[in-house]
Design a protein that fits this description.
Elements (H helix, E strand, L loop, with lengths): L1 E6 L4 E8 L4 E2 L2 E2 L3 E8 L8 H4 E5 L4 E4 L4 E6 L5 E5 L6 E8 L8 E8 L7 E7 L8 E7 L8 E3 L10 E8 L2 E6 L2 E7 L15 E8 L19 E14 L1 E4 L17 H13 L1 E4 L13 H6 L3
Antiparallel strand pairs: 1-2, 2-5, 3-4, 6-9, 7-8, 8-19, 9-18, 10-15, 10-19, 11-12, 11-18, 12-13, 13-14, 14-21, 15-16, 16-17, 19-20
Length: 308
């Protein structure tokens, strides 16, 4: 598969995906499919970590470099580290590029999430569960509403998240929450209030991230422990962008999407196909299909989401 990106103007890119499937026809190899997709995209100028975030714990283990353009979190045997946003957000699109802990990352968790505070808090989670060298990371997602979570979906990634930076995004509007990886949707949590399922809509949330030791559960249920001879473990962050609406639509970056674009964002047919591709090939756990966990019946939002 070959992907090319050609810039046409400030806001428009052409993405050419050439899928080549070799098959024999009179002795020749044939190109089966060429797909051309034109999409609107923003020209992103990254936010500044010095201006947008506070380093909240870990002392020197959390660092900001390059005039606020790069941030790193580290974990050693004494402590992990973390940061949080200065601002709170009520709906928006949040993008962050991460490069995860390389090598033997078993036992470590890199968490990147939105959360409010208190016993009835709302939360939207990305968590990256480390693994032995050569074994894939597990991307763990969850949604908490009014203090209740237990809505886990887990995925393998279709690339090595430790070799390069990749973009992890949350689109949160009154209709739904969309989790995206490199702009590919992996999960949709729709507003199902009409059937009695709470939806995060009233509590502003901050952005949090942390790198910490969770070898009691993170890798193979705690069977694989953290190898402290490989410490410190370090993850890197860059190109933060937040498009939000608080009174009037604002963004941390100039020249971004037109105001309000995320507010009604839904998956188009191509996005729905990509979502199905991810969930068919890379999903390894879905609470909606865990009948042993819910012997009285799956949660109501699961029945509704079957149409996605």
């Amino acid at each position: 598969t070959l992907s090319l990106s050609l810039s046409l103007s400030l806001y428009t890119h052409i993405y050419i995906y050439i899928h080549i499937m070799a098959f024999s026809y009179n002795g020749f190899s044939m190109v089966l499919l060429v797909t051309l997709m034109v999409s609107r995209a923003m020209v992103a100028t990254a936010g500044n970590f010095n201006q947008d975030f506070d380093l909240t714990w870990g002392d020197h283990r959390a660092k900001i470099f390059n005039g606020g353009q790069l941030l790193s979190l580290s974990l050693d045997k004494i402590s992990g580290s973390g940061f949080r946003s200065k601002k709170e957000y009520l709906f928006g699109r949040i993008d962050m590029q991460l490069k995860l802990v390389a090598g033997n990352s078993a036992g470590t968790v890199t968490a990147y999430y939105l959360s409010s505070q208190g016993p009835t808090h709302d939360e939207i989670d990305f968590e990256f569960l480390g693994n032995l060298t050569g074994d894939p990371y597990i991307l763990h997602t969850n949604v908490f509403t009014q203090g209740k979570g237990n809505r886990e979906q887990q995925f393998y990634l279709w690339f090595d998240p430790t070799r390069n930076f990749h973009t992890y995004s949350i689109v949160w509007n009154p209709q739904q929450i969309i989790f995206l990886v490199d702009n590919t949707p992996i999960r949709v949590f729709k507003n199902a209030e009409r059937i009695g399922v709470p939806f995060p809509k009233n509590q502003p949330m901050r952005i949090y991230s942390s790198l910490w030791n969770a070898d009691d559960w993170a890798t193979r249920g705690g069977l694989i422990k953290t190898d402290w001879t490989k410490a410190p473990f370090t993850a890197y962050y860059r190109n933060f962008n937040a498009q939000t609406c608080a009174g009037s639509c604002t963004s941390t970056t100039p020249n971004s999407l037109p105001p309000g674009a995320w507010q009604t964002q839904e998956l188009d047919p191509y996005g729905r196909r990509r979502l199905r591709w991810v969930q068919r090939n890379f999903m390894i756990y879905n609470y909606c299909t865990d009948l042993k966990r819910f012997p009285q019946g799956i949660p109501p939002e699961c029945r509704r989401s079957r149409s996605v």
